[in-house]
C-alpha cells in the first residue's frame, strides 16, 4: 500500500480568480503530490511504518517523516474546508460562533488576524476545545492532530497557497478565502470530533 494524492472535491477552475486553476495545478498537483511521493519513499524503506494509516503516522512520527505526512493530512483537510459556493455557518456552529465571538464576521477577523500574524509558513486553524471554539496556528508542517487538538477548519498560509494569485499579500488572500470560499457545512460536520478521519487514508 502507498498513500495517494486525493482528488480535489471540486474542479480546479471552480473558484475563478479567488483561487486560480494555476494555483491548484501547483499547490495540489505539485506541492501536495510531492509530500505524498516523499512520504511513500520513507514508508517503503521502513517495514515498521507500513500498514499504519496517515493519521496514525501523523500522531506517532517525528522529523522528516512527520513533515511529509503532516503536510499530506493538512492539505487533504484544507481542500475539504474550501467550497466554490459561498456558504455561511448554520445551526449549532452558528450558535457557538455568535455566543463566543458575537458574529461570523468577528470570527473571520480573528482567523484573519491569526493567519496574518503567523510568522513564516504554516496553518491558521479553528479547533474545538472542549465545548469551545479556539483560534490558533501551527508552524510549517505542524498539524492539530499532533497536539491532540480537534480541527474544524485550517487555512494554508504557506506562500505557495497565495503567491500565484495574490503575490505577497497574505492579508488579501486570507480575507478573500475566509469570506468567500469556506465550506461551513464541512466545518460544522467536524463538531462531531471526527474531522481527523475525514482526511485520513489507510497505510
Ligand atoms: Mn500548502
What does this structure look like?
With 203 residues, the protein is mainly alpha-helical. It has one domain (20-203): 3-Layer(bab) Sandwich (minor pseudopilin epsh fold). Helices cover 49% and strands 11% of the residues. The chain has nine helices and three strands. It has a three-stranded antiparallel sheet with strand order 2-1-3. A hairpin with a 2-residue loop joins strand 1 and strand 2 (132-139). Helix 2 (54-60) packs across helix 3. It is globular, with a radius of gyration of 16 Å. The model has no long low-confidence stretch (mean pLDDT 98). Manganese (III) ion is lined by residues 27, 31, 75, 156, 158, 160-161.
Question: Could you name the key traits of this structure?
Answer:
mainly alpha; 203 residues; 9 helices; binds manganese (III) ion; single chain; minor pseudopilin epsh fold
Second CATH tier, the architecture:
3-Layer(bab) Sandwich
| CATH topology category name | minor pseudopilin epsh fold
Strand arrangement within the widest β-sheet reads: 2-1-3
Structural class: mainly alpha
Tell me the radius of gyration: 16 Å
Could you provide a short overview of the structure?
The chain has 203 residues and is mostly helical.
Layout of helices and strands, plus pairs?
Blueprint: H1 21-44, H2 54-60, H3 63-81, H4 91-101, H5 104-117, E1 122-129, E2 132-139, E3 150-156, H6 163-166, H7 170-180, H8 184-189, H9 195-198
Antiparallel strand pairs: 1-2, 1-3
Helix pairs in contact: 1-3, 2-3, 5-7
The structure holds manganese (III) ion.
